[in-house]
Specification:
Elements: E1 7-12, E2 16-23, E3 26-30, E4 33-37, E5 41-45, E6 50-55, E7 62-68, E8 86-88, H1 95-105, H2 109-114, H3 125-140, H4 155-170, H5 178-185, H6 189-199, H7 204-221, H8 226-232, H9 238-249, H10 253-261
Antiparallel strand pairs: 1-6, 2-5, 2-7, 3-4, 3-6, 5-8
């Protein structure tokens, strides 16, 4: 496994888990098998499996984890030793909204442990039933999402994020207005801002800026000139880029370039994943 400037992690799982790659690219090794993990990939990990991850800290990688008990799996399914380990979810796969729903409504065990609650609160029965369904669908293969089966985020937010993903990937210098995003989302600008406030935590245009700034770190580390980066990521000029960069990261681009050369790992925000 290797990735530019990679950071690595290793863990042995004590429960079953789905690891869903939402954004970014990483590499992992599950027991003795190596995988490249790209957006849309989902891994089913069994207890006692050892997983090693390697990823580029400057290429924002977002994953969702769902841990569950083996008792949720019906005995009619194949033995766990025969389970597939990886699948790639098509855009219309029903697993995406189902996983989003469970992760949004499930019990936050990490927070519970931090607060001393431990296992005092069991998983609600309806979530256990849905986890069984998710696992069945994962093992049996792709199942298209029924018409009208909504994802957890409202459709206007989904449409805007998907369009942002395409724009930032293909034309990061494209000048985008709030009216452009509202037209894509098919709602008025005011309503789109309210939806982003409730479901994303940032205004729509701020999300575009944050993605561009975060992605520009890779070019900055590679030695690209500030003028080139500003133009490539759609900033009005170098001063505009530098001002937004420092407000976001707390360092000027020049200071960040020096810090990166010494192995500094900037603290990246928890941005919404793109393209799902």
């Amino acid at each position: 496994m290797s990735a530019p400037g990679a950071t690595t992690g290793r863990a042995e799982y004590s429960s079953f888990a789905f690891e869903w790659v939402r954004q970014g690219r990483s590499f992992c090794r599950i027991d003795s098998t190596a995988y490249e993990a790209c957006p849309g990939d989902i891994f089913l990990i069994r207890p006692q499996q050892t997983v090693e991850w390697a990823f580029d800290p400057l290429e924002p990688a977002i994953t969702s984890s769902l841990y569950f008990d083996v008792q949720s799996i019906p005995s009619s399914l194949p033995p766990r030793e025969e389970w597939p380990t990886k699948r790639t979810l098509p855009p219309d796969d029903i697993l995406s909204p189902m996983l989003d729903y469970v992760m949004a409504h499930g019990f936050d065990w990490a927070k519970a442990m931090a607060n001393g609650l431990g296992a005092a609160k069991p998983v609600p029965p309806f979530l256990g039933s849905m986890i069984t369904t998710i696992t069945t669908v994962f093992i049996s293969g792709s199942l298209k999402r029924p018409h009208g089966f909504a994802a957890y985020r409202p459709a206007p937010v989904q449409r805007a994020l998907q369009w942002m993903a395409s724009t930032v990937s293909i034309r990061p210098d494209n000048k985008v207005t709030l009216e452009d995003l509202a037209a894509v989302a098919r709602v008025c600008p005011t309503h789109l801002c309210h939806l982003f406030h409730d479901y994303v935590g940032y205004p729509p245009l701020e999300v575009m800026y944050l993605y561009r700034l975060t992605r520009s770190l890779i070019g900055l580390r590679a030695g690209h000139k500030l003028e080139s980066l500003a133009a490539s990521f759609g900033f009005a000029n170098t001063a505009h880029y530098a001002r937004r960069f420092k407000a976001f990261f707390g360092k000027s681009p020049g200071e960040m370039r020096i810090a990166l050369s010494k192995g500094y790992k900037p603290r990246l925000p928890k941005l919404p994943f793109m393209g799902t």
